[in-house]
Write the structure tokens for this entry.
Amino acid sequence: MRAELKKYWTKRDFKKTPEPKGGKPKKFEQPVFVVQKHQARNLHYDFRLEIDGVLKSWAIPKGPSLNPQDKRLAIPTEDHPREYADFEGVIPEGEYGAGVVLVWDRGTYQNLSKKDGKLVPMQHCWEDGAIEIFLGGKKLKGGFALRRFRRGAKDLWLLIKMRDRYIDEQEDVLVSKPNSVLSGRSLEEIEK
Ligand code: MN
């Protein structure tokens, strides 16, 4: 049992939703990230980062950007099980997050945060609200910063592309590459 997943489990009825219950021991070496495009009441993107065996999660209303001038609002949501990084499908009506989920991007990541020449553990970065990571996705590559800028009943963060050779200030990657990296399908095709 993972205490962090309690909120995730209590929100869902696993007899009704196809989402994974998760919480199994870890098999993979490298920590993963996933971006899920989620057509619920509002279209948004869920950004998830594996930290100590669970997926720390943020809802990003406008989605990620490769343009370092874009500061994308990221609203923390409940921790998800690692297995959720593979989930794509339809959450039935009446269930939490009802709608269509597509794996928009996925890959491994590396922690870039150093202090006195040593890596700062990801858990500390998350607690401090200052994350810098190198994403190895199919669409999102290079350095990204996640920064908490407001604490309170609702913490708020920003997701910002760091300046490196992977920036793209011309093209909107959400528009040019809208489909699933797992299946190539669009939201509409998954819904059918
Ligand atoms: Mn969502």
